């Protein structure tokens, strides 16, 4: 097995123990060791790298600043027991409930305005008309003599109609405010987590086949060795086990795998172009889909 050097590692790569348990990302890199969650691992304890992951050997010694401990101290769980080992696959599911809440309001505002109105009315009134008439001479009667030579003013009252204005409020219309319930469809999305259990044994069964495929192709000259190119087969194999790619052909997922590779390899000088590695990724995807 070829020794791993610093050029194959970088901070942020996920580290797995020899038993396949995730220990966490690389937090710091030193000249001959890496630090994961406060635990230090020497380069000699790294079995291989690939697909942005680091795999440790089965027997790993971890050291802190003052002493050495077990890889399990870094957050992994090592089970040493006979019989079956049950590893639960846990996932979160999205549940949507409904509750009553105030989502808005409608304001109906009343204002009072004034306007001038004119109503035509016919009014009756009395008018005085004075007419002097000539009569034939006749003897004055006692009634005529009673006030014949009295001075004074005779008042004749005049009557008529006048307009009396009153106001009456009447209802000329109404505004009806009604509420009705409607139903609208909404798609509620959220992020859920899922525990994915990877069984290293499945990959190990196919490893010899990957080695033969590599020897017949890019590795026919023996350079680089299979261990340095193994990550391409593993990336395709793991993509085939991704539930997002279930039932899909390699041609359907190849653009996404290309983007992942180009993002992960952009920081490594001298990385092989995707076109040179695609057949190895394809072979890993094909065998992983069995």
TrEMBL record:
Pfam families: DUF2382
Compositional bias (Basic and acidic residues): 238-262
Residues covered by the DUF2382 domain: 90-199
InterPro entries linked: DUF2382 (IPR019060), Stress_Response_Assoc (IPR052967)
Region annotation Disordered: where it falls in the sequence: 1-25, 238-276
NCBIfam families from the UniProt entry: YsnF/AvaK domain
Name under which the protein is recorded: DUF2382 domain-containing protein
């Amino acid at each position: 097995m070829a020794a791993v050097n610093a050029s194959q590692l970088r901070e942020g790569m996920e580290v797995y123990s020899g038993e396949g348990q995730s220990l966490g990302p690389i937090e710091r890199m030193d000249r001959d060791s890496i630090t994961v969650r406060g635990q230090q691992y020497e380069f000699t304890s790294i079995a291989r790298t690939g697909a942005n992951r680091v795999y440790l050997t089965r027997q790993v010694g971890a050291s802190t600043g003052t002493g050495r401990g077990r890889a399990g101290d870094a957050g992994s769980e090592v089970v040493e027991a006979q019989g079956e080992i049950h590893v639960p696959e846990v996932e979160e599911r999205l549940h949507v409930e409904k509750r009553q809440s105030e989502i808005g309001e409608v304001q109906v505002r009343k204002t009072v305005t004034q306007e001038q109105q004119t109503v035509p009315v016919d009014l009756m009134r009395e008018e005085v008309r004075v007419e002097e008439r000539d009569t034939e001479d006749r003897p004055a009667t006692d009634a005529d003599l009673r006030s014949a030579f009295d001075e004074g003013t005779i008042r004749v009252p005049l009557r008529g109609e006048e307009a009396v204005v009153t106001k009456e409020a009447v209802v000329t219309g109404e505004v009806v405010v009604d509420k009705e319930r409607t139903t609208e469809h909404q798609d509620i999305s959220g992020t859920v987590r899922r525990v994915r259990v990877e069984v290293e044994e499945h990959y190990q069964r196919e490893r010899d086949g990957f080695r033969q495929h590599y020897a017949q192709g890019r590795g026919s000259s023996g350079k680089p060795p299979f261990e340095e190119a193994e990550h391409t087969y593993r990336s395709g194999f793991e993509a085939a086990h991704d539930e997002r790619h279930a039932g899909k052909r390699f041609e359907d997922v190849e653009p996404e795998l290309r983007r992942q590779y180009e993002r992960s390899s952009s920081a490594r000088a001298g990385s092989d172009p995707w076109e040179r590695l695609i057949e190895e990724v394809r072979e890993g995807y094909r065998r992983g889909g069995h």
